Amino acid sequence: MSYAEPIESAYFNWLCAKVMKPGASTPSQTFWKLLAELHHTEFVWTVDAPMDENRAEDGLDLRREYVDTTHNEPDSSWAYLGCSILEMLIAFSRRAEFVTELRSREWFWEFLRNIGIDHLSDGVFNGHDISGILEKLVWRTYEYNGNGGLFPIHDPGEDQRKVEIWYQFCEYLVDHDIC
């Protein structure tokens, strides 16, 4: 008798493999709980930044890539679930790698550092509630300069809460002399 892992679990493991730190094996080095929380929180975009829908679509493209590479066919409802924050961040980290010299894994962890959750390994996550942090990210209730969001900058030309994620990223690159 063969055991088939449910597609959602297999897909989550596939996503985690893209961002987990190599060689991580102890609770102080692994981030399964944090990544699960990111995966169970939907990424939505607001009217203020309608092109952020592209970030969600990029995240959903990961599902198509997963099916294409593993030939693991999901039921039809799986493809229509909303994009998770984890999916969006992984997809965006790939775009960031494409335009910079940093690898996508490095970008992913920089994103988490910028919103203040990169330290929440499995050893310290126990019961830690990050829903407020994720809510602040999704609903753009972070600070004018992007503090609390993915891309804090020193001297913004405009309110970062109203700027599309891609353009926040571009300004972040200039502000941090990355490009």
How is this structure best described in words?
The protein has one domain (7-175). α3 (53-70) packs across α4. It is mainly alpha-helical. The chain is 50% helix and 0% strand. It is globular, with a radius of gyration of 17 Å.
Secondary structure blueprint with pairings:
Elements: H1 7-19, H2 32-39, H3 53-70, H4 85-99, H5 104-115, H6 122-125, H7 131-138, H8 165-175
Helix pairs in contact: 3-4, 4-5
List key phrases describing it.
single chain; 179 residues; mainly alpha; 8 helices; 50% helix
Please give a quick description of this structure:
The protein has 179 residues and is mainly alpha-helical. Helices cover 50% and strands 0% of the residues.
Uncertain stretches? none
Q: What is the overall pLDDT average?
A: 89
Task: State the end-to-end distance.
Answer: 53 Å
**Structural class designation:** mainly alpha
Rg over alpha carbons: 17 Å
Number of strands: 0
The string of secondary-structure elements, in order, is: HHHHHHHH
Largest sheet: none
Helical proportion?
A: 40-55%
Strand content: under 5%
Overall 3D form: globular
Work out the count of structural domains.
1
Q: Count the DSSP helices.
A: 8
